[in-house]
Write a structure and sequence with these properties.
about 250 residues; alpha/beta; 9-stranded mixed β-sheet; 9 strands; about 35% helix
């Protein structure tokens, strides 16, 4: 899972996150769903960063309730450190709003922004998802809603609807001063589009695409030219996450 490789990067000596052990490492998890990414990152990082602050946000109250239940269950079963309960919180928020709870906290911004947003376009949902997914996964967790207000040409086409969350995620990452942003995607075509969005913004010094079959962060497997810039691609298989660094 890409979350493990992201944690490995944070722990490595070459990481852009250079923080003393006793300085809080702050992670913002947008579209957290049931909180799995937040919980896994805490499990992977808490031994090396004794002071962690992780905020998971989601639009849906049901998702927040499940995330909090997952947190309580894993701590009560001693599957997660007791410190997890005080270092992770889950809150309801809409990332399309101009202000969110991530902006109302004191003491600085966020070091890392991660997100596994709804990213399946309506056409892809109808064409590629299995019956078990359609029966058991809420469609709102998979398919972004189309814009409800006026839109520019092309904004309401199928691919654009699938990509709808990424500009807001990048806006939040930029305004919070994040040094790393990592966003899950559905396939290599969407990864290339999202990488193009990252490269359009001056905040990010470099960008990579990580494929499903990623066994190590050592070495670039290939290089693609997107928006006239080189983007490293690691692993094999389908595109799974786009990562930007300051």
């Amino acid at each position: 899972m890409w979350t493990i490789h992201l944690a490995d990067h944070v722990l490595s000596k070459c990481s852009t996150i250079a923080k003393p052990r006793d300085t809080p490492l702050r992670i913002l998890d947008l579209c957290t769903g049931t909180g799995c990414i937040s919980l896994l990152l805490h499990a992977l990082l808490h031994r090396s960063h004794s002071s962690l602050e992780i905020l998971g946000v989601d639009l849906f109250p049901t998702a927040i309730r499940l995330a909090r239940q997952n947190l309580h269950h894993n701590v009560s079963k001693r599957l997660l450190s007791p410190s997890t309960s005080s270092q992770i919180r889950f809150e309801e928020a809409d990332i399309f709003k101009s202000e969110g709870i991530w902006q109302k906290r004191g003491g600085g911004g966020w070091d890392i922004v991660v997100s596994n947003p709804p990213y399946i376009s309506p056409e892809e949902y109808n064409r590629t998802t299995t019956r078990s997914v359609r029966n058991w996964e809420p469609k709102t967790a998979l398919v972004p809603p189309p814009p409800s207000t006026s839109f520019t040409a092309g904004e309401n086409n199928d691919a654009s609807i699938g990509d709808r969350f990424y500009p807001s995620i990048l806006d939040i990452a930029a305004s919070s001063g994040a040094k790393i942003v990592a966003m899950e995607v559905s396939d290599i075509a969407q990864a290339q589009r999202v990488a193009g969005l990252v490269l359009q913004r001056r905040e990010w010094a470099r960008c990579e695409i990580w494929r499903d079959g990623l066994s190590t962060l050592q070495g670039i497997y290939e290089t693609q030219i997107i928006n006239g810039q080189e983007v490293g691609v690691r692993g094999h298989g389908n595109g799974r996450v786009v990562v930007g660094w300051r």
